[in-house]
């Protein structure tokens, strides 16, 4: 179970960071979302993974740490609000700046790299 | 009532901001009501934090258990001299920014004053909390308020700066949570004092993981504090923000610095066994590089707001040096410098905006433009601010730098610290005098008198309130340094912290 869990968190983090490094706001927003999922799973595991454990005393044989669950709940709420804000901001930036690049302008040589300029025929 | 004092600097702005969203204060035509309410709230908040300061001076550090759950398990606020000093500083800076905003900037958007209060609440909370997870929560509060404040007034530049700022800080928040998860997984606690007790009892394998968590936390604080190489967002963001917001942001980098001082002195301090002082080798070069890059940026700044932002970067580097020295004496010097630099850089942003207002389209760019219409008043304000921030006598910048230089004792430390700080001071003087000559002496014509824009009294009072702190810090220098000495001693004296929170019995 641990290996699978670690793998999931790792892949989510990797994808999140990769998407955060993209040039347009939409992939970056997706990247931030994936990163916050990864963080939530990671925080949850900080109290150790345990099956069939209860967080409330007197309801089960084995217990699990309730604190990470509370932390994850807080982190989810905060992360959700932040993602909502960044989505609105990205739309505002699209309207204000006229494009959806994080830097607010197209990379200067992107066009030229694809089709090099030639003299007029 | 006095037992609830530590929580009041958080509750007053919280409830004040909420009330300002309700009908008697909401709506564009009710701005006079909001201004009055904000003024009352600011004065209330400052008086509460000052009385908390007096209580801490008389009776020593106190802690406040929220919901009366006791220390290692419940969430606590911890008020010692360091935290209380910064809370008072935050109040004064907030008052200056608010007064300045009364001149009309607060009417550019509906929610300026409530957002400002939320931001003050987040900053106060970050200073007062004794719990790492709550530090994260208060960081998020101050950040989301700052996201909205940064874009206040609208415009292309602000949107552009805000996209970078928000994305960077969201990544920073994720890293913060990774670090917290790692530290909680190894030490089993989130209380800063409790963590300090347990960090030395870790096994060798756990120490490696805790070290990774601690270093991740340094990245987060470094991002907030604009430590090299995480400072690239700062000049653009601060230059784009409207003046009172930029002035308030002057304390946001100090929140990161505070985090570094608190976490790496208390948790990873001398008693941490293998992990003691683990970030020190990183901080040394980064501090010097931050100063050097800040100085280069100051010389290259195209306008006064950029220059002020780069001076913030220099002050962050200087504070990191004060941290890296790791003696109570250096910490005390750093605290004095922190108070001075926050207020003066805040004032510099306000002055830049006032100068820009009177130069037409040229704003505060270093180009020939029409004459400033109130050269005497603005000139004096700029001159005092420049002298102070560059560290010339008789103002507080001089004393601040002097005591940091004095706290370097060994020859190697002196060899590195003295030239870097002094040359950075010289470069600041060059950049500021170039700025002053261009802004005040190089103009075309005498300016059109019909377009004369006199400054509002609110603007001048806001800037003067922040500037006047500088001579006061010199006149009452003995009292202030005495206070910062005691604050630094309290920060480095962990036994006192454990005793206040009754942690030692719990550990046994």
Automatic annotation (TrEMBL), chain A:
Keyword set, alphabetical order: Cell membrane, Membrane, Transmembrane, Transmembrane helix, Ubiquinone
Major site of localization recorded for this protein: membrane
The GO cellular component terms are: plasma membrane
Please tell me whether the keyword Phosphoprotein is annotated for this protein: no
The membrane topology of this protein is: Multi-pass membrane protein
Subcellular location, in the record's words? Cell membrane
For this protein, the parts annotated as crossing the membrane are 6-21, 28-47, 67-91
Please give one Pfam family short name: Oxidored_q2
InterPro entries membership: CPA3_antiporter_subunitC (IPR050601), NUOK/Mnh_C1-like (IPR039428)
Q: Which family does it belong to?
A: Belongs to the CPA3 antiporters (TC 2.A.63) subunit C family.
Query: What is the protein's name according to its record?
Result: NADH-ubiquinone oxidoreductase subunit 4L
UniProtKB/TrEMBL annotation, chain B:
Tell me the GO BP annotations in alphabetical order.
Answer: ATP synthesis coupled electron transport
Q: Which InterPro entries match?
A: CPA3_Na-H_Antiporter_D, NADH_UbQ_OxRdtase, ND/Mrp_TM
Question: What residue stretches are annotated with the NADH:quinone oxidoreductase/Mrp antiporter transmembrane domain?
Answer: 130-426
Entry GO terms, CC: plasma membrane
Q: Where are the transmembrane segments?
A: 6-24, 36-54, 84-105, 125-151, 163-184, 204-226, 238-261, 281-300, 307-325, 337-355, 376-395, 415-441, 462-483
Q: What is its main location?
A: membrane
Q: Which domain of life is it from?
A: Bacteria
UniProt keywords, alphabetically: Cell membrane, Membrane, Transmembrane, Transmembrane helix
Tell me what topology the record assigns in the membrane.
Answer: Multi-pass membrane protein
GO MF terms on file? NADH dehydrogenase (ubiquinone) activity
Localization: Cell membrane; Membrane
Tell me its family. Answer: Belongs to the CPA3 antiporters (TC 2.A.63) subunit D family.
Write the protein's name: Cation:proton antiporter
Native source species: Lacimicrobium alkaliphilum
Source organism phylogeny = Bacteria, Pseudomonadati, Pseudomonadota, Gammaproteobacteria, Alteromonadales
